[in-house]
Fold each of these.
Amino acid sequence: MINSTARAHALSQVCLLLTCRPFAAQFIVLGPDHPIVAVMGEDVVLPCHLSPGLNAENMEVRWFRTQFSVYVHLYHSGQDHYSSQMPEYQGRTEILKEGISVGNASLRILRTRLSDEGQYHCLIKDGDFYEEATLELNVADPFFTKDSPWMAALFATLAVCLASLVIVILFVLRLRGEVRIEQEGIWATKTPLN
């Protein structure tokens, strides 16, 4: 029979294992505290990383919008999984795996669409422990971005065209006015033959 000292020692070891396991796996998932801005049609990276920078290669990294089960991208056990990926993201997402060994679980969305705009959740799970970060993606139409060189060129071209049109119209009106004056002058000086 096991004596009470051995039983107490075994019980303390079990308690130590049960209490230490979750603390060893704890981390914080961090994302940006400001919206990410993307230009429609271009690629965008949604930042997400662990603190401390633990190796996440064997953890689950799940990016989703509103429903946990239908995901934007799922990575676990060292592989990407696409079985329940949202159809609108198929072939357009990837985890930046070059940083996953140091806790970087950032997601790249290829060929950004206006429909990609909104809230994203980056959930990282290790065993039973998980944390998540929420971030916002804003997608701008490339034609209407604030500092777009195309917008400046468009406005400059429109201004030149408008000014040219006004000048041409004024010239034609003046030319017509001069022709009428000359015709009136000719008719006025013409004398009848009697």
Note: DSSP finds two helices and eleven strands in the chain.
Amino acid sequence: MGRFPAIGPRYLAACCSAPCDAKSRECRNSSVLTGLTLPPSARNDAPVNSVMIETEELSRSYGSTRALDGVSFRMGQGKVLCLLGHNGAGKSTLVSILATALPPTQGVARVAGYDVVRQAREVRRRIGLTGQFAAVDGNLSGRDNLVLVARLLGARRAEARTRAGELLDAFDLAGAADRAASTYSGGMRRRLDLASSFVGHPRVLFLDEPTTGLDPVSRAALWEMVRSAVADGTTVLLTTQYLEEAEQLADRVIVLGHGRIIADGSVAQLKEQLGVSTVRATLADPAALPAALAALHRAGLEPQPGEPAGTVVAPVRESAALAAVVRALDEAGLAITGIALSEPTLDDVYVSLAEGLPELPVLS
């Protein structure tokens, strides 16, 4: 298969996962995502609905800089946890600690019930990891990259090639399967890197900004792969700067700010607690905008001029305020040609959080 690749986190995890006794290897045919199985001890040691990721006062310092500061949370099986935060918030540091690539300065972290420091080998047997940058061997073909990972995980040669073929098809790489990965485009290398994470059917899958560099079609395909893995019981921890991605996939969202948890809940909970809906009314007479602003101020709202001209916009905390806007404008004798209520988005939630956190940039 050519030159053996440098040992990085994925290969290290795979080497630590491979059974030492070839006779003990257990393989089976399955779907694209379920593929290779773990040894029985790794596959059955956590009950259904068990806690798969747990941290207690987890901290990490680089000199005087505190990248993580007392992070505590628990995540159950078959769920997607999305980490949001600005660059430098601590997202990648947290993933690195949970994936055993970086030790914490303080605190405890467990994955699938195993301590990431004292039982790192057991953790590595149960996880898949895709980092921010594609970690593939450019001298190997796409197929051989995947076969290598499968062999390190203990698969027989025939099954490793079968598994590689399944994933090459799933990630739309079959047409370039036997080309050197160095000839791949950036998006293709990214898809190959993602495919490697699915080779061994991990109990916990860490995806650190996995769709960076992917086109919309490839991004949507990855979302479906994640949903399928979760349906099979895999727990996914996803970091992203695409808020739409979090809305599409997350069962739970944790927002980090300067190494600390500043918000935690489902998308719906965060929107309800921190988001603000917006009423947008279009006036029949654009010249009546000053009167409309005054009328809504008297009703206790904080209206602003909107676009196009003759539009008034007011943030509201509940949908019942829509009627209050209509009533206030009607009592002022102002006719409208249209009115709409926009529900809050995760962008709104993040902006709301950013207002209380100094130097916190807005995600795009």
Note: The first strand starts at residue 51 and ends at 62.
